[in-house]
Write a structure and sequence with these properties.
binds adenosine-5'-triphosphate; binds 4-diphosphocytidyl-2-C-methyl-D-erythritol; Ribosomal_Su5_D2-typ_SF; four-stranded antiparallel β-sheet; 12 strands; 2 domains; Ribosomal Protein S5, domain 2; Alpha-Beta Plaits; alpha+beta; nucleotide-binding; eight-stranded mixed β-sheet
Length: about 300
């Protein structure tokens, strides 16, 4: 029992429809989660005291105290399994921070998988998904990966089968957006309207089942996009520039401010990266493809 490393993906929501606020403060969702190969590596080792270290270009923006979602996940399991002692957690971070790509959730999911393997706990998949859901609405999907339909507050998942793989470009902003603030802004913008029951369109499901990138491009949709733009008006320009420079479609990722551009193929994505870099519409531009598997052990020393 020395160290376990787990690799875990970021997500983008291909469809995100948001219902009215629920009594518990969350919103009912119907969403398509899609994991992409922008990944964090989380390493967990037994130690004499708890610690958390984050490496990577955005490390300074990630807390290392008990508010880190990876620490929360490890301590949650330590409360349930008395045989577990303190741990050293190391997060090698490539997923954008506070970008609407569920980076903290991914680290929490990776930690659940790592601790389970490190201490040989044999936690069932169902129970692991239960721990994940209690840690955050996006955490279960990071365990599952691929492409999945999310309902409830995002924690109820059903896989979406389809042979397609997709090429993406992401425009990242250094300054994040707060997820609760974006949901609150969405409520404010829709205050004078009846909000329909959230639902993913049949056209979107058909596009995904057929692996049809052009049909998928037509149906990318995010109900939080207007709210993210209201809070960060420059995002409108970023999205428009991507479309002018050849993206098949552009959408704000989750609660933003990352903008996601769907491309026809890999060479289209490379061309778009160059154009967006030149246009200086974002602090960084990265390329990724999906779907990507969920949290997986990559080394067990
Ligand atoms: C925007 C998305 O990334 C889309 O997948 C997620 O809905 C956000 O999921 P998350 O960051 O895991 O969110 P949580 O940690 O569960 O909740 C943080 C806050 O976001 C808001 N929230 C989140 C999920 C949801 N279905 N409705 C909400 O209103 C609530 O204000 C909540 O207090
Ligand atoms: N392991 C972690 N990695 C990144 N941020 C974390 C982590 N743990 C806690 N945080 C805090 O959570 C905030 C949101 O970070 P995160 O990167 O998860 O946002 P996000 O991608 O917008 O989330 P989501 O898409 O799930 O709403 C950060 O500003 C940071 O303070």
């Amino acid at each position: 029992m020395q160290a376990v490393t787990v690799r875990v993906p970021a997500k983008v929501n291909l469809a995100l429809t948001v219902g009215p606020p629920r009594e518990d403060g969350f919103h009912g969702l119907a969403t398509i989660f899609h994991a992409v190969n922008l990944t964090d590596d989380v390493t967990v080792e037994p130690a004499s005291s708890w610690s958390c270290t984050v490496t990577g270009p955005d490390a300074a923006r990630v807390p290392t105290d008990d508010s880190n979602l990876a620490v929360k996940a490890a301590k949650r399991l330590a409360r349930s399994f008395p045989e577990i002692g303190p741990m050293r957690i190391t997060i090698d971070k490539s997923i954008p921070v506070a970008g609407g790509m569920a980076g903290g959730s991914a680290d929490a999911a990776a930690t659940l998988v790592a601790v389970d393997a490190l201490f040989d706990l044999g936690i069932s998949r169902k129970r692991l998904l239960g721990y994940a859901a209690r840690l955050g609405s996006d955490v279960p999907f990071a365990l599952v990966g691929g492409t999945a339909l999310g309902s409830g507050r995002g924690e109820e998942l059903a896989p979406v089968l389809g042979g397609g793989s997709y090429e993406w470009v992401f425009a990242l902003q250094r300054e994040g957006l707060s997820t609760p603030q974006v949901y609150a802004e969405c409520d404010r913008l829709r205050a004078d309207r009846a909000v329909p029951v959230p639902m993913v369109s049949e056209e979107m499901m058909t596009a995904l089942r057929g692996g049809d990138v052009h049909a998928l491009a037509e149906h990318l949709h995010n109900d939080l996009q207007d709210a993210a733009i209201a809070l960060r008006p420059t995002l409108r320009d970023t999205l428009e520039t991507g479309l002018e420079e050849g993206a098949l479609a552009a959408v704000v990722s989750g609660s933003g401010p990352t903008c996601a551009f769907l491309c026809e193929n890999r060479s289209g994505a490379l061309d778009l990266m160059v154009a967006l870099n030149a246009a200086k519409v974002a602090d960084d531009i990265v390329r990724a493809s999906g779907p990507h598997p969920g949290a997986k052990v990559t080394s067990h020393g």
